[in-house]
Amino acid sequence: MKRRLTLDDLWDFAIPSSPALSPDGSRVVYVLRTAEREPDRNVRALWIVDAAGTAGPRRLTEGPADGAPAWSPDGSRLTFLREGQLFALRPDDGEPERLTDLPLGAGAPHWSPDGERIAFSAPVRVAESWPGGPVVVDRLGYKADGAGLRATVRRQVHVLDVGTGEVRQLTSGDWDAGEPAWSPDGTRLAYTSAAGENADLTLTASPYVVDLDGGRPRPVGDEKGWFGGVHWYPDGSALLAVGLPEVRIGHTRLVKLPLDGGAPVDLTRDLDRNVMPGGPEWPGGAPRFTRDGAHVLFCARERGSTLLYRVPADGGRPEPVLTGSVSGLSTSSDDVTAVVTVTTRSHGEIALADLDTGQVRELTAHTATALPDVEFIQPREREFTIGDGSTVHGWILREPGATGAGPLLLDAHGGPHLAWAPHLEPAHPYHQLLAAQGWTVLLLNPRASDGYGEDFYAASVGRWGTGDERDFLDPVERLVDEGLADPDRLTVCGYSYGGFTTCHLTTRTDRFAAAVAGGPVTNLLSMSGSSDDSHVFAALEFGGDVYAGGELLRAQSPIERVRHVRTPTLLVHAINDDRCPVGQSEEWFTALRTLGVPTEMVLYPDESHQFMADGRPSNRVDYSRQIVRWLTTHVH
Questions:
Q1: Higher per-residue pLDDT: 541 or 459
Q2: Which residues form a coiled coil (predicted)?
Q3: Do the domain assignments include residue 2?
Q4: Fewer CB within a 10 Å sphere, N or C end of the chain?
Q5: Residue 475 zone, left/alpha/beta (φ > 0; ψ -120 to 50; rest)
């Protein structure tokens, strides 16, 4: 007998990520995240599965903090990160051996083509300081969500000699070096860095190349854009960079940068979609060349989903090769492609993709194994016409067979340039919990959402709240008119920018009987001076000098209209949140309490902005519990 999801099931979630296909395409190693009730922690361990499907997945390491697996070129060894240091093992036998013992840890490993060296980006101190001592800053970027104050620590490129164990730092300076990539002949490394003068203000980050023997790094390109990842063309003549040729709010591109100074080629100019380089447990994947070097595989968002595309390496029209949503991308020397597939019935599975047929063969069944008797409520796709004639796309979760007008939850996503997808969201299990209790859950991708074209993507610039307000309210009224939502039992919630939306909407209407604002932005002026991304807000989202244009910020800040709020509101916030600092919730809570509006605030110590996705398991459970409790208490 199948049943619906419960809060207690969150402890059994098993979420795969970071697939690494062996060079011969015969095996896939990946990271699997699970949870332990005691000592209340996330566990990440390496697992391995046979690509032929003759043997099921097996656990390769014990964890609890293993990640970034990478095969040696000959497939004999596997390197990975364990609690910040590099380890290696032979997948068929033997215990992991430690390769590094660096004071501040190492970074994700990248093998040289000959298998004799491993490059990585690792933190170092660029000036004298001591733990816990005063931190003197003279540039923006002095803190990072999840890491806190950075003091004098910067990331630099290092190279490990596998034979001798010697580690050599290859770059230095008061700037950070991104993930390194080896040239095909193994004599150079490429990376990206915001090393330019005043880069903390200009927000530029450029590709660089440095010789393995050392010397001054050389910039590639005109140093006017922002690039966050770089790879080599197979013949060593150019770099493949992921980023924007100019710093602005817009779609990330896939760009060929010739090393001889030739003109850049935008490989995705004919695709009006956002390139998704991905990351652990994040949609998308780092671009990969096919075996013959003729094409590049990459991921891009399409109407909430993240699809796998192929484009000619020298330019041409990109074409989708997989229609399902993917996270993580790895290829072998035989053109086998491994991905993590995410669906409406699983939190992700390791799979092999046939690029010619578009077929996907799943090698694991972690969700079905972890939750064998759970049946998930399936989303239904919807489109709504807004008053100005625009179309807003999204999904509805509602118990099959449900009739009549019941309570409705409008959940606004973050970003503002993220998007709800039609697959399971491990960080938002309350969607399933409420739908199982007779609620209708409405997930909309309003203006500024990713996957609908660049004009749509940038529609929020300088117009937070005002640009997308009707994208939320008109669909809600449509569901009321259709008899699916009870007009007296409408609620709203959201996290990050979704928290901003929640606060904004409750200053504009009394239609909602209850609201939950998670990690919100309530005061754009103070947010733009205190977030770890403060200058992004100033220079990009609001188009210039925040302080010279303070009236624009104030006009769009919910705190300026808080006196109009009548909606009972719960605030949930991580105390160590540096992206949307906790003061944003504190300002809202203090205002509502002073105004006599029913309100509570739940604070999570020792957690950062993404805690609801990756925090302590008990806090992730509590996050959903608090949302369900508040909404069901105020909506009968």
A1: 459
A2: none
A3: no
A4: N
A5: alpha
Residue 356 CB coordination number (10 Å): 8
Based on the domain organization, do 365 and 426 belong to the same domain?
A: no
CA dihedral 553, 558, 560, 562 (to 10 degrees): 180
Residue type, 356: D
User: Over the stretch 237-255, which tens digit does the pLDDT of each residue have?
Assistant: 999 999 999 999 999 999 9
For residue 546, the model assigns a pLDDT of 59
| Tokens 């619906």, residue located | 4
Long-range pairs, 426-432, Cβ under 8 A, ≥24: 426/13, 426/15, 426/347, 426/613, 427/612, 427/613, 427/620, 428/612, 428/624, 429/5, 429/7, 429/9, 429/10, 429/624, 430/624, 430/627, 430/628, 431/397, 432/4, 432/5, 432/376, 432/377, 432/397
- The DSSP secondary-structure symbol of 91 reads T
Q: Note the pLDDT tens digit of each residue in 65-75.
A: 999 999 999 99
- End residue of a domain, out of 370, 388, 409: 370
> Using the 8-state DSSP alphabet, how is residue 270 labeled?
T
pTM (two decimals) = 0.96
State residue 545's pLDDT score: 59
From the list 421, 349, 375, 431, the residue with the least C-alpha distance to 14 is 349
Which stretch of 143-147, 277-281, 515-519 has the lowest confidence by average pLDDT?
A: 143-147
Q: In the β-sheet with 167-169, what is the strand arrangement from edge to edge?
A: 110-111, 117-125, 153-161, 167-169
CA-based nearest residue to 381, from 468, 320, 445: 445
C-alpha 13/C-alpha 374 separation (Å) is: 12
Q: How far is CA 620 from the centre of its chain?
A: 17
User: HSE on the CB side for 523, CA within 13 Å?
Assistant: 19
Question: Considering 370, 401, 436, which residue would you say is the last residue of a domain?
Answer: 370
Q: At 124, which CATH number?
A: 2.120.10.30
Q: How many independent structural domains does the chain possess?
A: 2
Residue 12 near residue 1, CB atoms below 8 Å: no
Q: Are residues 356 and 411 in the same domain?
A: no
The pLDDT-based confidence of 149 (bands split at 50, 70, 90) is: confident
Same domain membership, residue 482 and residue 360: no
Give the per-residue pLDDT at 636: 81
> Does residue 375 fall inside a structural domain?
no
CA angle 488, 3, 400 (to 5 degrees): 45
Shared domain check, 316 and 434: no
Question: What pLDDT sits at residue 548?
Answer: 58
- For residues 365 and 396, state if they share a domain: no
Reference 424, options 443, 409, 448; nearest CA is: 443
Residues 192/197/202/207 CA torsion (nearest 10 deg) = -20
**Pick from 558, 574, 556: nearest CA to 518:** 574
> 407 with 440: CB under 8 angstroms?
yes
Residue 295, H or E segment: strand 295-302
| Residues 9-32: b if buried by 16+ CB within 10 A, e if exposed | bbbebbbbbbbbbbbebebbbbbb
| pLDDT tens-digit readout, 565-612 | 999 999 999 999 999 999 999 999 999 999 999 999 999 999 999 999
Reading phi first (left if > 0) and then psi (alpha if -120 to 50, else beta), residue 214 is in: left
The share of the chain scoring above pLDDT 70, in percent, equals 98
Q: What is the extent of the structural domain holding 12?
A: 7-370
Q: What ranges in 387-438 are assigned the alpha helix state H?
A: 430-436
